[in-house]
Amino acid sequence: MVGLLRSAPSELPHLTTQFLDFEDDSELTARSLTTAVLQFAGASWLKKEGNYADMLHTTEPELIFQKGGRVMIPLMKAEEAMNKRYNASRRAITSKVPATRACIGEGPMKRGYYVREDRTLESAREAEGPEVRVSHSFLKSIRFSRDVSLFLSIGKPDSSTADANIILPEEVDNIDPDIAHRYIIDWGTEAEVEALVEPADTFPLFSKETAYWLVGLTGTLGLSLCQWMLHNGARYIVLTSRNPKIEPDWLKTMASQQAIIKVTSCDITIMQDLQKTYEDICSTMPPIRGVFQGSMVLNDIGLPSMGLEHLQTVLRPKVEGSINLDKLFQDNSLDFFIFFSSVTSLVGTLYNYYKPSLFILFGNKRSLT
User: Fold this and answer.
1) Do 39 and 104 have their domain in common?
2) 55 found inside a domain
3) Contact 213, 283 (CB under 8 A)
4) Locate the Ketoreductase domain: which residues (predicted)?
5) What is the number of other CB atoms lying within 10 angstroms of the CB of residue 226?
6) How far apart are CA 196 and CA 127, in angstroms?
7) What is the pLDDT of residues 158-179, one digit of tens each?
8) What are the residues whose beta carbons fall under 8 Å from the beta carbon of 290, sequence distance 6 or more?
């Protein structure tokens, strides 16, 4: 219903709608409902008479009635962290981060050094062993052998100093006294520092030891995504659609880059067909650790002329197909499960595209993690 009310005005400009969402049944009273209806009807009449521009009032397409009588207006909010990572691939983006709590590192540049957010260090939070709160460190690493370079740091274990008291004298004796460094970093500041934001694909995002399944993505978008994944560490990729048509030259190019690409035909709206394809992938490829669901059917038709059959044709790949894929991975063995929606789910378009784009089965997957 939300999809219908959001998309209908874009197809029928003369139509004005308002959606009322009561989060708590106790707020659904005759007074609250009557007030909303009268305000909506009054604003519509004033617009028709041409007197609405002078009113300090807006007719919102959606209102949310929260417990306690608070009325909220749904608005789009920018995701600042994700936008910064995306734009960091095109220009230098900085962000203020707490020096004592964030995972940050440093790197050389033409005129000095820069501080950066380092997401690769996040895994250190889960590492076993004592945690050390570093107070000072060298700016440059010390080369101990041909293949080993380390940063000399001074810190205090968060848990106990007993191990440090035993190990430190022995380790200090092994340091060459002739080593001289002019600059030392003080990590003890409590202030925030300006850190350079790194793009999401700065480091490999995928594993060469696992497989990734691209469903309904055998067109230009899917092939482009496939190449990007290979560039970021992936090796085994499965491409599936009802009628995959991929140029042999493209497959040869991918094979020359040590990629293992498997192309299969499958209708994901039929569970038996999907199950068979899944079993074939499992028997011929490494374990599947990521799924991209991008299936869709194009069938342009306006809301006034749309019949149930037209609607179901577009709905089935995104809705039934996504439900079937979800059933395959109930064991929660995936690193990610990405559903391809569309910006049309925010700005509105033909109803038969808008509604499936709003299908949010991913909320169920997220609740399992």
Assistant:
1) no
2) yes
3) no
4) 210-365
5) 24
6) 25
7) 655 555 555 555 555 555 555 5
8) 206, 210, 212, 213, 334, 335, 336, 337, 338
